[in-house]
């Protein structure tokens, strides 16, 4: 096999691995804990452009977590819907351009007014729900 053929084959294999997110940047974890008032149950549904992680029911104090790798090409983003009695909200729990250096493990406390992220660098920071 010629050197040119070997290089083309290598590039094709690399492109396929990148497209299927086999090769990516760092591994990240997102943990969501139900800290709603009045011991309410929380229904969580998280997605990215490529993945639908399904619907999960969290009783008060329960945690749901998932692991993924940032893509080399594109911008990894996970967003979740949060639903409890009489309420329905969305929030971006991971945006690579903002979070890839901020947290390898992004811990989110889900509260009635909005989600709060806790990192060793920033401490506890709370946000408003997405509009």
From TrEMBL:
Q: Keyword set for this entry?
A: Secreted, Self-incompatibility, Signal
Q: Name one GO cellular component term.
A: extracellular region
InterPro entries the record matches: Self-incomp_S1
Q: Which GO terms describe its biological process?
A: rejection of self pollen
Task: Check the UniProt entry and state the signal peptide residues, or none.
Answer: 1-24
Q: Output the PANTHER family linked to this UniProt entry.
A: PTHR31232, S-PROTEIN HOMOLOG 29-RELATED
Protein family (similarity comment): Belongs to the plant self-incompatibility (S1) protein family.
Name listed for the protein in its UniProt record: S-protein homolog
């Amino acid at each position: 096999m010629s050197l040119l053929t070997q290089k083309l084959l290598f590039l094709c294999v690399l492109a396929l691995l990148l497209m299927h997110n086999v090769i990516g940047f760092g591994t990240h974890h997102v943990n969501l804990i139900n800290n709603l008032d009045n011991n309410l149950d929380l229904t969580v549904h998280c997605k990215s452009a490529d993945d639908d992680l399904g619907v999960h029911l969290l009783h008060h104090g329960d945690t749901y977590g998932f692991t993924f790798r940032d893509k080399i090409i594109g911008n990894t983003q996970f967003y979740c819907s949060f639903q409890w009695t009489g309420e329905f909200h969305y929030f971006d729990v991971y945006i690579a351009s903002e979070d890839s250096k901020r947290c390898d493990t992004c811990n989110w406390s889900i509260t009635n007014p909005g989600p709060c992220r806790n990192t060793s660098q920033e401490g506890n920071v709370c946000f408003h729900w997405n509009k």
